[in-house]
Each structure stands twice: as structure tokens, then as C-alpha cells.
Amino acid sequence: MMKYISLIFIFSLLLSCNGQENKSRLWNKEEINSLKTAPYNITDEGDDTKSSYDDLSPEFINKAKKILEQRKFQFPDENTFNQKISDIFSFNLKDYKNSIIALRPTMFPEVAIKENKFVFIQDAGADEPDFINPDLVYHYNSYVFYNTPVSYVWLQTNNSNLLYDLVVYYGYNKDKKLVESVFKKFDFNSFSDMEQLIFIDSGGYKKLKKQIFDDIETLIYKGKVEDFSYAKEGNGYLRIGDIINKISSSPKEYFEPEKTISYLFEKELRVGIQGDIESYLNKNPKYKSNLEKNNFYDLPTLKKYVKYIYQKENNINFIIQDSDGYTNLRKDKNSSSQVLQKIDTGEQIEVLDQNGDWWLVVSKEGKKGYIHKSRIKSE
Questions:
Q1: 220 lies in the same domain as 296
Q2: Domain for residue 28, yes or no?
Q3: Are residues 230 and 307 in the same domain?
Q4: pLDDT tens digits for range 64-109
Q5: Nearest to 60 by CA among 5, 20, 114, 113
Q6: DSSP collapsed to 3 states, 182-220
Q7: Residues 243, 247, 248, 254: what is their CA dihedral angle, to the nearest 10 degrees?
Q8: Mean pLDDT, the chain, as a whole number?
């Protein structure tokens, strides 16, 4: 009798375990099905004909893999592979159910091969039908995953357009040598090129590649200005005003349009460009109050300009008022600093910066310096 009960118990236990296993398998299947489909895998060949990179020839993939193996390429582990694809191509492979993923919509896109952990890439100038260039396959993967100097030189010499696209299309900027070389030949005066440089498609919206702006500021403008008294020389933001106008007229095309506009103003102001924000404030009276409601989106330069500098455009005049009949315009922010000029009481001045106790001003003769705020009166 005990033997019979034991057998029933064991049988029940097995059923229970199998049930848990099947439930786990079902959950994993549901989890996979909940993932998105790769957005660029289906391509239109024309004449109502479509092709899918899900059906990329295993023969092509194996040929590319064999090339890498023969050249002793070290295939990255899964974590490194996923992280590199994210860092360089702004593409999170874990979001998609496909095992083969085209990384952009173009005739010969970069294609992530999840199983083998390499990027399949074709060369339009190579022989048909596979269009596989062994040197390109090897050097592209060596640069993408290991930043190999020899591979960087080979790509610059033979396929520089692919390196260009890493920066301009994908927004990759961790290799500053590459970014600098791309900026030297980039047309900052082209509206379409500039849009491609600073925006990336994100779920049907254009979203800023914020990382690229630091490079524009550093490489093109050589850093930010100390105050608003001058603008840095450079061509990096030539079309920003036009882009802001486009966002204003077609806000549905952009991710968080007002925040995006504000971020662009912040970047312009950091290098001293004030014309676009000044014009925008004049045409959009509600914009200032919207900024205040949103705490200026935590953009410090924009906040400083709107709160302290833009006031002079609202018919506010600043004049000297000192019981001594004049005050001193000083070189630095202290009373022992060199006196640049004496300015008479009642004389109008231009205030450039109202931060702190010493304000940066310009006299009617054009001299720039500091005056203690207690000697300045607004009208």
C-alpha cells in the first residue's frame, strides 16, 4: 500500500514539474512575441516587390563569418556585442525579436547578426551576387568592436563614407579623432545635412542626438563664452534658426518640440549667439512664461539670458546713479580693480550680465567693464 502511494506521489510530482516547465516555456514564448519587429528589415524593391533581411542568405552570412575567422577576428561576447551596437548605432538589439537586424533603411545597410555576433556589411562595388568585400567585412568589424587603428586607416582610405555615416547618421561620437575628421568636410550650411546630424528617428519622431552638440561646441567653437558680450566664431550653428522655425511650424514631427527648441537655444547661447532666441521671444510672448513653468527645462544659460539679459529688449533703460556725480567702470569685479573709465551720473549704459553684485556693462563710448549694481538704476 505504501509503495502504491509513493508511486502516486512521484507521478503527481512529475506532472507538477512538467506543468511548471510548460508554463515557463509559454511565458518565454509570450515574452518573445511581445518584442518589436525590426523596423528596417523589410525593403521595397519596386514593382510591388519586397524583400526581408530575415531571409538573408545563410550562405552569405557563413561566408562573411568564415572571412572573419580566417583573419583571427575575436568575436565579442553577447553583452559586448549588444553594448557596442547600442553605443555606435543607437540600436538596442534586445528590443527586437529578429535574429538578423538591418540597422537602417538603405540599399546596403549594416546588419547585426545576433547568433554569430558580428556586423554583416556589403560593398556595392564588389562582385555579385553576394557583394562581399573581405577587407571591408574584417576592417569594419575590427573598428566597430575594437577601434583598431589599422582598420580605421583602411576605412578612411577605402570607405570613408561608412565612417562619415557613423557620426552623421548614427550619432556616434566616442572616437573624437573620427568626429573631427567628419566635421572638417561636413557642410554646416546645408539644412538637410544639419537635420540629419542632430536628429535621429525615434518611433516616428525626430529626436535630438544631444551628444553631438558637445563636439560642435568644442571642435567648431573652441568652447563656450564667459558672458553674452560677444559670440564665438564658427559655422556649426548656421542653420539652427531655420531648424527652430521648422519645429515651430511642424511640432508633431519632433519629440518634445518646445523642450527641443529650448535646448537648441541653450546651445546657441553657450557660444554667444543671441539673435534667434531674441527674435523668438519677441514673436512668442507666452514662451517666457512657459519656460518659467518648466523651470527653464534645467537649462542654465537659457535661464540666465531670459531672466537677466532679455529685459533690455523690453524698453528697460539702465543709467548711472551715483551721489558722487560719477562712478568707475572697472576691469574686474572688485573695487580695487583697474578703472577703465569714469561714467557720469545720468548717463545711459548697456547691461550685458546682471549676475552677482558686479554687473557687466558697456559705456556709450563702447568700453566694456564692471560696475557695482548699487550704482545702476533701471527706467
A1: yes
A2: no
A3: yes
A4: 999 999 999 999 999 999 999 999 999 999 999 999 999 999 889 9
A5: 113
A6: HHHHCCCCCHHHHHHHHEEEECCEEEECCHHHHHHHHHH
A7: -170
A8: 88
Task: Determine the Cα–Cα distance for residues 346 and 202; give it in Å rounded to an integer.
Answer: 56
As a three-state string, the secondary structure of 244-294 is HHHHHHCHHHECCHHHHHHHHHHHHHHCCCCHHHHHHHHHCCHHHHHHHHC
Q: What is the mean pLDDT of residues 14-35?
A: 50
153 and 44 in a common domain:
yes
Quick one: 42 and 157 in the same domain?
yes
Domain end, chosen from 269, 291, 314, is at 314
The verdict on 49 and 156 lying in the same domain is yes
Do 292 and 332 lie in one domain? The reply is no
What's the confidence (pLDDT) of residue 315? 57
Query: pLDDT confidence of 51, banded at 50, 70, 90?
Result: confident
Closest CA to 223 of 190, 276, 267, 189: 267
Closest CA to 208 of 176, 161, 255: 255
Number of domains in the chain: 3
More confident residue, 313 or 137: 137
Q: How many residues does the chain have?
A: 379
Higher per-residue pLDDT: 10 or 369? 369
Question: In the predicted model, is pLDDT for residue 6 greater than 50?
Answer: no
| DSSP β-bridge partners for residue 199 | 208
Largest CA distance in the chain: 116
Same domain, 308 and 327: no
Q: Which residue segment(s) compose the domain that 74 sits in? A: 36-167
Rounded-to-integer distance, Cα 51 and Cα 43, Å = 5
Claim to verify: residue 344 and residue 307 sit in the same structural domain? no
Q: Which residues contact 205 (CB under 8 A, 6 or more apart)?
A: 253, 254, 255
pLDDT, one tens digit per residue, over 210-250 is 999 999 999 999 999 988 888 999 999 999 999 999 999 99
Query: In whole angstroms, what is the distance from residue 281 CA to residue 312 CA?
Result: 12
